[in-house]
Amino acid sequence: MARQRINRERIRQLLDINLSEPKLREIYDDQITGFGVRVTPKGTVSFIYRWTTPEGKQDRKTIMPMTCEADVKKARDQVLEEIRRLDHVSDTPAARVLKHERRTADRKMLAMPTVGDYLDGDYRTYWLGATQSETPEQNLKNIRRDFADLMDARLDEVTRPMIKRWVEKRTAAKKHKPPAIRRTLGALGGLFLYAVEHELIDVSPCAKLRPKVDLEEADKLGRELTTDQEQQLRAALDARETAIRAQAVALGGRDPQTGGHTRRPSCVCRSCQARDPARDQYRDASLRTAAPSLDLD
Questions:
Q1: What was the pLDDT predicted at 119?
Q2: CA dihedral 206, 208, 210, 216 (to 10 degrees)
């Protein structure tokens, strides 16, 4: 059916036709794409809006019922507001981000969303439009899988102790390494941080939470030193090596590292200037873990 101008006169014509031939009828406006009027066989009139979602699916929403002739203009204004907030297949990523920000502001005025609703709604729209990940949906699935108990809780009901207990339980289970726990916690933290930025909540319950590290396991695997710790360790190793050489020279008159005479920085002989593989290997291995006598914390 060709699109027609929706106004009071056209609606009167539909109602007159419906009296003699009752059936469901829909007409769509020739100015606002998707804006239409629905007339039931019983003569009930309502304004509707149809659009194509970003996933390519056709969706429809009832804007409002018609109770008087003045509702035509009101329905037009209201459908324009809906268009400014609903995601369409033709929207650019920037437009979708802008729309979900509008929906976020509206939702804050109406009611606080649950974690699940926010994850599937506004945060999902933002994440899919802003992330550079090749698998953006997987991040959302991981949040829903690992925090299933939080999905029905409102955003403002999730507290720091709740998240802390989750971290402690996951750490105690020993099925997940601390880096994996941090990644999962960071994914949920991104959701709450976005809610903070849009003033839905005041503070993120995930802020500054980190899993505790198993010290015995850390000693086995080693840990990466900071720049200051590395410099401190190198200085300690140099001092230890100097003391060993000095003791060797004092006892036997021979420096075991130079093969016959005390090594001097200014000496240009091959023995002094040659690379010492054993010494370098010892130093590289020592950098993987702090010396027991050093306070590197």
A1: 92
A2: -160
Residue type at 31 in one-letter notation? Q
pLDDT on residue 292: 47
Q: In CATH, which superfamily holds the domain spanning 93-212? A: Tyrosine recombinase, N-terminal domain (1.10.150.130)
> Cα(265)–Cα(136) distance, rounded to whole angstroms?
57
> Whole-angstrom Cα distance, residue 274 to residue 3?
89
Q: What's the whole-model pTM score? A: 0.39
When pLDDT is cut at 50, 70 and 90, the band that residue 49 belongs to is very high
> Which tens digit of pLDDT belongs to each residue from 158-211?
999 999 888 888 888 777 788 888 888 888 999 999 999 888 888 899 888 776
What are the C-alpha distances in Å from 15 to residues 3, 8, 37? Answer: 18, 11, 11
Pick the CATH number of 8-83 from 2.60.40.10, 1.20.1560.10, 3.30.160.390, 3.40.50.300: 3.30.160.390
- Helix, coil or strand: residue 185: helix
Ordered by start, the domain boundaries in the chain are 8-83, 93-212, 224-286
Contacts of 150 (CB under 8 A, 6+ apart): 115, 158, 162, 188
pLDDT above 90: residue 151: yes
Rounded-to-integer distance, Cα 164 and Cα 214, Å: 17
Confidence of residue 291 (pLDDT cuts 50, 70, 90): very low
Q: How far apart are CA 93 and CA 114, in angstroms?
A: 24
Q: Which of 31, 24, 27, 34 is nearest to 11 (CA)?
A: 27
